[in-house]
Amino acid sequence: MFSKILIANRGEIACRVIKTARRLGIKTVAVYSDADRGARHVAMADEAVHIGPSPARESYLLADRIIDAARRTGAEAIHPGYGFLSENAGFAEACAKAGLVFIGPPPAAIRAMGSKSEAKKIMEKAKVPLVPGYHGDDQSPDLLAKEAARIGFPVLIKASAGGGGKGMRVVEAADKFADALAGAKREAKAAFADDHVLVEKYLTRPRHIEIQVFADGHGSCLYLFERDCSIQRRHQKVIEEAPAPDMDPARRKAMGEAAVAAAKAIGYEGAGTVEFIADQDGTFFFMEMNTRLQVEHPVTEAITGQDLVEWQLVVAAGGRMPLTQDQLRIFGHAVEVRLYAEDPARNFLPSTGTLVHLKLPQENQHVRVDTGVRQGDTVTPFYDPMIAKVIVHDRDRASAMRRMAVLMGETEVVGVATNAALLKALCSHPAFVGGEIDTGFIERHRDTLFPAPALADDRTFAIATLARLVEWQDREPTAGDPHSPWNQQNGFRLLDEGHDEVRWKDGDRDVTVIARRLRGGGLSLELPGGTQAARVQRTDDGRLAIDLGGETFVATAVRRIATDGGVDYTLFSDGRSRRLRLVDPFDLSMYEVAGAAEATVRAPLPGKIIDLRVKAGDTVSKGQPLLVLEAMKMEHTLAAPADGTIKSVRYAVGEQVPEGAELVEFEAS
Question: What are the structural domains, with CATH classification, of the chain?
């Protein structure tokens, strides 16, 4: 076994590898960019080496810097995690040339599966079922359009060298093909430096089922059962579970053996995942093979009781796999959710900012949390916006989903938008829990998963107001005599009964809550729905213990200065969260005339302009695409918010823009 390894990655996977290595007595070396200088994986490792600026192409993707860090620290092997250099055959070869062990498959296996087109040819020879499609080298737009017509719409355009939903487009009709192809190629070129694509038949209600395979250098190859990863948004996984629902033993064996055949066909070693697309009738087709450990591997570990990172280290050191196929068993059911910094209501737009408050589920025999961040860390635009993976293992699927829904309701994040509410809604959705599973589930059930925002209720206003009053009570006297009436915080009013007024903004609604102190203790709150008696005190962990109208509960209130300078209160109680804006009556901006500002399109997050569709003087209609912004490894098309004429375009293709930058100015018609 190795005495020291370097982890050529970041975030939760780096932390995950460090934990296993520490348990095995292996020292670890972390690498980090400017953005990750204070990151959790850096603090956890025995040593850490700075490798460059924040952009991945200037740090984590520079193989020579990674190898140099390993040499300088005396590491014997490099674990690439997933992403960055994990599926880079050239990097694996460079490691070998430097006398370092690459903890992953042989370069030839990576190269064979690195091109989806070449992989399809290999799988065809190995008699692994394939989706009808075109996987050839001719990339002329006319030929690709003809092949799409031959296959029959809808079709799926996929980057040959890619993954994670990048360079992927679903095309419903022939007249949409050209634009989709251009976008897929552009995104693939930016993400993988290769714009080669393939075109396949798109199944309308497919399931995404993948098989975890493992092979050692002694000729053994096996499968550790399957994972269902069908719940997706923008072709990226949201929920993974194992075993797959409604998987009968015969189909499991057939898919497992097909996956092993795929691995053997390329001389595979180490951990890998063979991904299949399955129809509702049970037929399945090879999609691709990921020659690395996957983000969703914890659910496989949960149902098998195995540590796949430990298996990786053992096999990379020349050892045999700990178990044989016949010794593997499935225990219970596991589900994993990906908690992202993103806004589902805005088409899953990534969210950046500081995690000013972070409360993740507590780990126990049923719950595991893999995360690379802590409270106070910043979600930057440079990397994937994952906050954590939460994994639940229980006796059956219904129990696991029920437990996960509760955990997502108890998760508290302030500083960035998250998908926690969506994850809770998914895991408690009757159709999903009942077995309706396919990659189109989220879009099909959008109305129930994304309900229109409701008005805040009296309970919400009460929590916010009580939090504000407790803050006033916690303040020290400003100066001088503590008995001075100017230092009293009891709602004193000249010629009036003492009370406090707290004003809130809930969307477009302004609400004033009046709090009066009662002689016997406690408060009387005048709320929109009526007056209620209330008591409040802080708990040992800083939360609020509240008695409202005879009902007792605990709530969390987090005060935050917003980017526009206003004060927001985010409130968590009973599995729900809500944000209210504190209204300052002395803030004159609140009285500005609505609609006075000129119509503009602003950058929703930091990124790079990669395509401009308009110029000054053009006439546009509402919803017309204006430009494409690349941010957090995805393309975001920004459209005109109204009919009008373009007055100016402030940036050129290739320019970096900050969040909130005015990109296009136009005059509404």
Answer: 4-103 (3.40.50.20), 132-201 (3.30.1490.20), 207-449 (3.30.470.20), 458-475+489-588 (3.30.700.30), 600-668 (2.40.50.100)
